[in-house]
Structure formats: structure tokens, C-alpha cells
Amino acid sequence: MTATVVDRDGLDALVAALVADGRTVIGPTVRDGAVVLAELTSADQLPYGWGVELDAGRYRLVPREDGAAFAHSAGPQSWKDWLHPARERLWSADRTPEGQLDFTAEPEDDVAYAFLGVRPCDLRAIAIQDRVLAGGRQEDSRYGARRRRALLIAVECTEPGATCFCVSAGGGPAADAGFDLALTEVVDDEGHRFLVRAGSEEGARLLERVPARPADQATEDAARTSVDAARARMGRALPTGDLRELLAASPDAERWNDVAARCLTCANCTMVCPTCFCTTTEEVTDLTGDHAERWQRWDSCFDLDFSYLHGDGPVRASARSRYRQWLTHKLSTWYDQFGSSGCVGCGRCIAWCPAGIDITEEVAALDAERRVRSGRDDQR
User: Is the model's pTM score more than 0.90?
Assistant: First the structure.
């Protein structure tokens, strides 16, 4: 579809149309000193005039003079918070007067989400979770139902953060696929506006209800220039080369000891990661023992119980082994299961690590260690 241009009033109309359709709109807003994802009822709740400063273990909200709504990097949440919730009930059971157990499956919710402000790295993350949770023989039916009803409104990146490395992870700041609508924010002497492209029939129908005008060449050029410039301003980068092979060849690297001395095994990296998907289940009962529930909740490979074997204890008892498991799976053995890397380069694990551990730095160190080791082997 030919690109169109909407202004701030048009963005207001877009959110109003989504709400009128009965959709729950989730998008960025400022709360508690951060740009967070939350339910929106109006476009006025978007973080106009706010940006962020990022570094390893550091996140700060900072004001912007240009009034941009989407000139910020990823916050502590991702869209998996709604598609793959951190905790949800699966079923409940009640003891009948006759002493039998009556099981009741938790009904699937019928909410229809509209995600506003999905970054290209998160579009890739959603596509990865689609393969993991809905693409195999055993679909997570709850995830699949939410995903099929969700409408994705992407926003291309024009302001990469200091912890962003999507280009070296195989992505980029441009939204190429997987969206219903894609916005590119432009703020210049000609005003504040959004270049909009439809990526699906549903997105095109929605756009017809929003005040818009045909895209002019100046807006298209400004949008493309901003996105292209962002591609060259990534704050970090993974090493070039075959990372799958690098991690597979580095199980005994000394670098694992270095990172283990700093890692708190707090699991922050897996909680904020938009592709981590592991869960466990827990049963709870009331005091009478007549009512029980099974809940599914997120789990992490940094948890000691994650690899617990009855009679033997945890397979990965050390911080070294748990960090190695996470990084090796994310960048290497994920390919064996799902045909791609499990990292999209969003940088959340770097910014929200309380110890400031940087995945790009760790992989670069492993690469450097292997080069040194290979040189020694060659000398022999």
C-alpha cells in the first residue's frame, strides 16, 4: 500500500479507533521513572518529549526538546508480558461432597490486543516466540489464541540506545515484515508527523478510518534517512563470524569463570528478554485442602531448581554453568531447536543487569580467547 502521513491528531484518531473496536491498546508511557508498556486509552498518554540514557546496568529517563513520542529505547518490559504472561492459572479442582475431585480448566481470555510502538527487534522477538510456542506440534493454545487476535503497530527506530545491537544480531531499525501498520516518526522544520505503511489487510482497513494524507517526498526521504542513520549508530555489536560455532567450541573457556565472579544469577536477563520462554508449574491449595489450583509461571535457567534431578540435585549448580547454559543456548543451540538465534539485539539484558554484564562484551571475550588459544595450538 502507498505510504500515507498522519499527524498527532491522526495518531489520536488511530488509538480512538482501536478502543472503539473493543481492543485493549498496549503502548509506551512514562511511569515510575521509566518508559513502560501499559494500557492506553488515549494517544496523549504516549511519552511525548521523553527519551532514555542507557548503559550496562544503567537506565535513566531524560527530557527531549523535540516532543517526539517514540525516541526512546526498549524499557524493562516486552510484549511477551501480554502474549506469554508471567503467571496464569491453568485449572482448578474442588472436592465434591461425595469426595470426588471436580476439575475445571481455566477458560482462555478473549482479549484482543493492539500493540502500539512495537520496535523491529521486538517484531523479530514475537516471530521467534511464534515458532517456539505456536509453531510446533504442541501449540501453547493460550499463546496462540492471544497472538492470532493481536494487532501489531510497529514503530521504526530512529534513536538507537547505547545498549542496542540489533544490526549485528541480524536485524535492524527498519520494520520489514510482521506488522499490521508501521510508523516512522519525523520531527523537523516541517512539523511532527508519522509516515505510515500498512502491512496487512486489517491494517489497511484501520488506516482508512484515520485522517491522513498521501505521503510527500520530503517526509519519505526524512523517514528513510533517519532509519538509515540509526543503522549506523548502534551502541554495541556482537563479533562477526559464526557465533553458533564459537559458543559450541568454548565450553571450557576461562572467560566463564570471569563472568561467574560477577553474575548474581538473579535471572533479570531472562525476565526482560523478549524471547526467553521457559515456564514451570506450581500447585496451590486452600487451608481446607478442598480447593487446588495449578498455575504456570515463568522460569529461568539461572534458577537452581531449573535443572534439578530427583536424588542428584541441580545439574548446573554453579553460576559459571548457569550463565554458560543461558548464553550458549541463546546464541548457539537455539538454532538446533528453532532454526535461528534466540537473540534480537534489543539490549535489555545489558541495561537491566544489576551487575552490568554485557552480552556483547562476553561474546567478544570468548572470541578473543579462542583466537589466542588457536594461535597457541598452531605454534605447537
Answer: yes
137 in the same domain as 57: yes
Residue 193, φ and ψ in degrees, nearest 5:
-155, 175
Residue 274 lies in domain? 243-374
The grid cell for 20 is 472503539
Among 161-165, 308-312, 361-365, name the one with the lowest average pLDDT: 308-312
Angle (CA) 35 38 41, round 5° = 115
- Please report the beta strands in 236-351, taking only residues with DSSP state E, as ranges in sequence order: 279-285, 291-298, 308-309, 313-314
DSSP-derived letter for residue 332 is I
Cα within 13 Å of Cα(281), Cβ side: 9
Tally of CB atoms within 10 A around 15:
23
The 10s digit of each residue's pLDDT in 58-94 is: 999 999 999 999 999 988 999 999 999 999 999 999 9
Q: Which residues of 111-133 are buried (b: 16+ CB within 10 A; e: fewer)?
A: eebbbbbbbbbbbbbbbbbeebb
Q: What is the DSSP letter of 108?
A: P
Strand partners, 325: none
Q: Do residue 30 and residue 145 come from a single domain? A: yes
β-strands 151-155, 181-188: how paired? parallel
CB 230 within 8 A of CB 157: yes
One domain for residues 201 and 324: no
Residue 156 and residue 175 in contact, taking contact as beta carbons nearer than 8 Å:
yes
Whether 211 and 329 map to the same domain: the answer is: no
Task: Please indicate, yes or no, whether residues 145 and 273 belong to a single structural domain of this protein.
Answer: no
Q: Are 227 and 174 in contact (CB under 8 A)?
A: yes
Mean of the per-residue pLDDT values for the chain? 95
In a domain, 236, yes or no: no
pLDDT at 117 over 60: yes
In a 3-state reduction of DSSP, which class is residue 304? helix
pLDDT in tens, 254-278: 999 999 999 999 999 999 999 999 9
- Residue 380, in any domain of the structure: no
The domain total for the chain is 2
